[in-house]
Design goal:
The chain has about 300 residues and is α+β, with helices and mostly antiparallel strands. The protein has 5 helices and 15 strands.
Length: about 300
């Protein structure tokens, strides 16, 4: 299933788990999996292939490839702030952000059972954490100072006045999914803070791999911000270019499990004055076989790419 990022998130994220980055494994061979490197343009092919193989091996070793179409792999963060924000209550926003949160009610400590419902109607039974565990995971560690109540030096805490179970819709590797949550009503907020209640044992997180500095790794390497269209073996990807980059070119490596994409550009001459901006530029790469259910991964970050930046 190809997953499209919704134009408007169901809820605004407090912590962007992008998760989607990859850390700490040594480059390993790809075993018996057939690899088919393809590249166009001036970017050296060997460093791209080596990195693509590392990304693919890390995903394979993590077990994520199995969970990709059968498990719960969230793309959205697990803590969700109110869609309407903080209604200009800067004290409340600062108190929550700095971890000055307390509950005026007793939080249930019992765990439970629930299920996730995916857009295709399929259901996945999962364990649920208690409200107390969800609260602990939701509240940031205390840092900085607590904002004082107006005209005083007393801490203006964010206070939870009610907790109840609920559901919300988030983005996953299998498309949008309705998941169980705990909803925490906070005094002064029109909408509750929400924490996904799925037990971590039933959540598959993205593997991590050491980040790579494209410019320092091979000349002209550039990021891929998402994919725009897939038609047969043709994949249009969105490259992130600088204002003075030229000649964008797409790169693709694939095996039976994944499709890894990258890009290269002709960078500006040293000393060239350029504005600081990210220009999204579509390029098309061709795979040997249709993408199917294989995840499309960015070679630099190792993250799974979502549909985004639709072409004009």
């Amino acid at each position: 299933m190809r997953t499209a990022a919704p134009r408007r998130p169901v809820r605004r994220a407090h912590v962007v788990i992008a998760v989607l980055g990859l850390a700490g494994l040594v480059l390993a061979a790809c075993g018996s999996q057939p690899a088919s490197p393809r590249a166009t343009g001036g970017m050296p092919v060997d460093p791209f292939i080596a990195r693509a193989q590392q990304v693919a091996q890390t995903w394979r070793d993590s077990g994520l490839l199995t969970s990709w179409t059968t498990g719960f792999v969230p793309f959205s963060p697990l803590t969700l702030e109110p869609v309407g924000g903080y209604a200009s209550n800067e004290n409340l926003k600062a108190a929550y952000g700095n971890g000055y949160v307390k509950s005026a009610v007793t939080l249930p400590v019992e765990a439970g059972k629930g299920e996730i419902t995916y857009a295709d109607g399929s259901r996945q039974p999962v364990g649920l954490v208690s409200a107390q565990s969800a609260y602990t995971a939701m509240v940031p560690p205390q840092q900085g100072t607590c904002p004082p109540k107006p005209g005083t030096t007393t801490c203006d805490w964010a206070i939870v006045s009610k907790v109840e179970p609920g559901t919300t819709t988030i983005l996953t590797s299998r498309g949008e999914a309705t998941v169980p949550t705990w909803k925490f009503t906070v005094i002064g907020l029109r909408e509750p803070l929400v924490r996904v209640a799925v037990d971590p044992a039933d959540i598959t997180t993205m593997p991590e791999l050491p980040p790579i500095d494209g410019r320092g790794s091979w000349t002209g390497a550039t990021s891929v911000e998402g994919w725009q269209a897939i038609k047969g073996t043709s994949v249009t990807i969105a490259l992130g270019l600088g204002a003075c980059d030229k000649d964008p070119r797409g790169l693709v490596w694939e095996n039976d499990d994944v499709v890894v994409v990258g890009g290269s550009v002709t960078p500006p001459d040293p000393g060239t004055a350029c504005t600081a901006q990210l220009i999204i530029t579509p390029v098309t790469v061709t795979t040997k076989a249709p993408v199917g259910t294989r995840p499309i991964l960015d070679v630099l970050s190792g993250r799974a790419l979502l549909k985004s930046y639709a072409p004009d």
